[in-house]
Structure formats: C-alpha cells, structure tokens
Amino acid sequence: MSRILLFNKPYGVICQFSRDGMHPTLADYISLPDFYPAGRLDTDSEGLLLLTDDGKLQHLITDPRHKLSKTYWVQVEGVPDDTALGKLRKGVDLKDFVTLPADVQPMEEPGGLWPRNPPIRIRKEIPASWLKITIREGKNRQVRRMTAAVGLPTLRLIRYCIGEWALDGLAPGAWREETMARPG
Fold first, then answer.
1. Of 16, 28, 86, 117, which has the fewest Cβ atoms less than 10 A away?
2. Residues of the chain with pLDDT under 70
3. SS3 of 86, please?
4. What pLDDT, on a 0 to 100 scale, did the predictor assign at position 1?
5. Could you list the active site residues?
6. Which residues contact 59 (CB under 8 A, 6 or more apart)?
7. 58 and 129 share a domain?
8. How many C-alpha atoms does 112 have within 13 Å on its Cβ side?
9. Which of 66, 39, 45 is nearest to 139 (CA)?
10. How remote is the C-alpha of 158 from its chain's centroid?
11. Domain count of the fold of the chain
C-alpha cells in the first residue's frame, strides 16, 4: 500500500525538508521519514500539499501528462466581470505560454477560513472578491499570473483540492495520512 499525507501548508512555509535559515520548512511540521512532496506550493501560497513515500505515486501526481486537476480558492483585488472570467475560462496568454482553459466560478469567502498571518493588504477604495479556479496544469505561479493578466491581482491563494484529495477538516500546519493501492 502507498502512503500519502495531506498537509495544509501555512503561508510562509517552503516545500522542502532541508532548512534554509529564513523560512519554516516541512520538517517543522512533519517528522515521518521517507515522505517527499508530490509537487510544490509557493511560499506565499497556502493549502493542500501532498506528500508520499511512493515514487510511482509521486510521479503520477506530478506528471503533467496525467493532468490531475487542482482547485484553488483565490482572493483577488477587484470585482471580476464577464470579460475577465471569460478570458480565464478560455485560456490566458502569459507570454511564455497560453494556459489551458480553466473552470472559474465566483464564490463567497470560504466558511471557517483561518486568518492568514500576516494578513493580506486591504485597500478601502478597492473591493476584494473570491474565485474558485480549477486548472489541469501547474506551471510556476500560474494562477497568480493568470489573475494578474486579466486585471485581478491575487491577494490570497489557497489550494483546496488536488484530484480527489481535499483540505476538508485540516487546520493550517496539520496533516493526515491516507493509504491507497499502489499505482500500476
């Protein structure tokens, strides 16, 4: 059986076990041996990070050919209009590549959401909104770049799901272990 950890990565934590002297790392939260991240999440992003002790499973989760969906809760500066939503849904030209179409839905602030430390920057004259964005690729800072390209800079980014795995019930810094049949 493959073992997998679902970890709710707090803001400011880097996705590695080796210490860099500047940021908290996975080693500050997870002391189990032989687990490795299946993918990455930027230091300034929060939410679901998968770790596994199975190299084949790690490859299946991260290999772009499998196009495992990733769902993000994204707080943006401004109020999205139909034009901005349409561009995100169609695919955004980010100069070095054009994103695949995304599933994008406006949403209310997620219930039970933990406060971010440090808090996001709030501007009195510019409202903030929440979007639920699902993509099937995961290039460097892709969601942040997509929202910025359509005039909606990201203020807070939380990865909620990867494939069938979700954050449900995990507080920041907490993890739970699941087992599954080894990938074929």
1. 117
2. 180-184
3. helix
4. 79
5. 42
6. none
7. no
8. 6
9. 39
10. 5
11. 2
